[in-house]
Amino acid sequence: GLGDVYKRQAFDGSQASGTLLDPLKEETYAFLAALFAELRGVFRDAAVHLGGDEVQFRCLNASADFRGRMVARGYDASCPAADPPKTGGNVCANGGPGFKKVVGDFVVRAQRLARAAGFEKLGGWQESFDHYGGDDATTPTPPVAGLDPGTAIYAWLAPSWGWGNPASMAAQGFDVVSTLGLYLGSDADHGDWRAFYDVHPRSSATRNASSRGYFNVTDPAEASRVLGAEACLWGERADGGDANLALWPRAAAAAEALYVGPALGGDDAVLARLLRHRCRLVQRGIPAAPLQPGFC
């Protein structure tokens, strides 16, 4: 089972992790092939999201055994000059080109296994597009060599950080789903619906100065590759006790803006619709958060 694979693959060193599969062990790919086959038999939807974000390079390069196996397979296991080893070992935070290539090769091989299992639509976080495909001096990197051209790239990194965005992804021929500005587990009050109403991944227009997540995608072919956006609620900050309060009605605000477009009138008109919808949810037993004093 999955737990057994994790236990057998624990890395040595202070950065050991029980949640990272070893991309240089064949048992990893045998496990993935079996997992994808099982998932394809359970779920009717022929789509799968393969993740690929936030790989902990420090976990990999803290392991002398892993670095040795990298070298034996022809990968460069050194740290980049801009990120030298820390005292006590070869532990660079971001990994050099060799570590990126290991992860890129893993992504491609996992995609091929998913295709072989019958998955017709592949998704992955944007790191496969702009983190693992080039040498360490390039930011963003090119897409991973061999990345399935049918991959839907999920954008999540703030544009100000210098990585890819929905416009650059669509321009290179990839389908795009944007999550920029749509993380519902914010520290703000659950009534902060305006922050999620003012986001649209294809438009260059903004309703106010705080808007984010906008990209000027005007070419018809490129615009057709922007499949839409996804409002996310992560389990680190929510569970069954408050998930509905965090989701509703903020997710409804995002849904309306994404379905119709960003120019939908003033706040008063939008708020009136959300108040009615919040009451519908409450009347149906869904504990949606209040947006202002009042009653249903």
Give me the secondary-structure topology:
Layout: H1 2-8, H2 26-42, E1 47-49, H3 57-61, H4 64-72, H5 97-116, E2 121-125, H6 127-130, E3 151-155, H7 166-171, E4 175-178, H8 194-197, H9 220-223, E5 226-229, H10 243-247, H11 250-260, H12 267-283
Parallel strand pairs: 1-2, 2-3, 3-4, 4-5
Helix pairs in contact: 2-5
Give a written overview of the molecule.
With 296 residues, the protein is of the alpha/beta class. 37% of the residues lie in helices and 7% in strands. The protein has 12 helices and 5 strands. Strands 1-2-3-4-5 form a 5-stranded parallel β-sheet. Helix 2 runs parallel beside helix 5. The longest helix is centred in the middle third of the chain and has 20 residues. The N terminus is likely disordered.
Essential attributes:
alpha/beta; 296 residues; 5 strands; five-stranded parallel beta sheet
Largest sheet descriptor: 5 strands, parallel
Q: Which ranges are low-confidence, i.e. pLDDT below 50, for 5 or more consecutive residues?
A: 1-8, 10-16, 205-211
Strands, total number: 5
What structural class do helix, strand and pairing data support? Answer: alpha/beta
| Spatial arrangement of strands, main beta sheet | 1-2-3-4-5
Residue share in helix: 25-40%
Indicate the proportion of strand residues. Answer: 5-15%
What is the chain-wise order of helices and strands?
A: HHEHHHEHEHEHHEHHH
Radius of gyration: 22 Å
The coarse overall form would be: elongated
Given the structure, what is the number of helices? 12
Give the rounded overall mean pLDDT: 82
Report, as a whole number of angstroms, the end-to-end distance. 49 Å
Oligomer: single chain
